[in-house]
Amino acid sequence: MLKNIKGVVFDMDGVLTETSKAHFEAWRDLSNKLGFNIPDTVGDQVRGISRLESLEIVLSYDAKKRAFTDAEKTSLTDDKNAIYLEKIKAYSKRDLAPGTLELLKYLQKKEIRIALASASRNASFLLKAMEIDSYFDGVVDPSSIKNGKPAPDIFTKAVALLGLPAEKCLGVEDAQAGIESIRSAGLIPVGIGPLEKCQYRFDTLNDFYQALLLNS
Ligand SMILES: O=P(O)(O)OC[C@H]1O[C@@H](O)[C@H](O)[C@@H](O)[C@@H]1O
Ligand SMILES: [Mg+2]
Fold first, then answer.
1. pTM exceeds 0.90, yes or no
2. Same-domain status, 147 and 163
3. Which residues constitute the domain of residue 183?
4. Domain tally for the chain?
5. Where would a tag sit more exposed on the chain, N or C end, judged by fewer CB atoms within 10 A?
6. How far is the CA of 173 from the centre of ligand 1 (A)?
7. Is the domain of 12 the same as that of 32?
8. Which of 88, 110, 138 is the last residue of a domain?
9. Ligand 1: which atom is nearest the Cα of residue 13?
């Protein structure tokens, strides 16, 4: 699987750590504050999607169909982020998905360059909190990206940071929008979870790591 591979670009939420649950719970708390509820299926719908796009999905469940101004929407996303930050404030290396540290060390030993392509503006905070920031040769600043996933921009920027051709890199994602982004940027897609159109697919990040060990 790593033959001819020079770089691996990771998504973070739902790949390196199970923050997807905290994102969903924060949106649910916000919807409850607004007087409605969102179904569990929203959890998968907001994977990989920006804060504002996620809000639009959440508001589509508002029975009152209120029309919020742009300023009000910004304020609602700030509220969601405050709730989310409260939920992840004690995150540490214990919150890494099983196998993450071993996988990063393994790639480093093989001299494979590592980058992060997360849509989250909280990603740098979490990399530090979970003590894995030093493994990354490049971290894309999501606020520098014009078009979010499924557009290729964020993965294209990540391989540029690594100075590598896209086809020599794996992209690792838990969101279908992320897999589309990886494919259109020309990286080789590795899916974590029930995803389509992946070159390789595993149930967990640890399964991916174990498969690399078996094939090395
Ligand atoms: O609100 P943040 O932390 O900037 O994150 C933006 C997006 O980041 C993605 O990684 C998550 O999968 C999405 O659910 C989230 O909306
Ligand atoms: Mg994700």
1. yes
2. yes
3. 7-17+92-214
4. 2
5. C
6. 13
7. no
8. 88
9. 10
Is 157 domain-assigned?
Answer: yes
Question: Per-residue pLDDT for 171 more than 80?
Answer: yes
Predicted complex ipTM: 0.99
Give CA torsion, residues 48, 52, 58, 63, to 10 deg: -160
Whether 2 is in a domain gets the answer: no
Taking the CA atoms of residue 93, residue 182, residue 150 and residue 202 in that order, the dihedral angle to the nearest 10 degrees is -60
**Residue from 13, 29, 70, 174 carrying the catalytic annotation:** 13
Q: Give yes or no: 13 in active site.
A: yes
Domain for residue 113, yes or no? yes
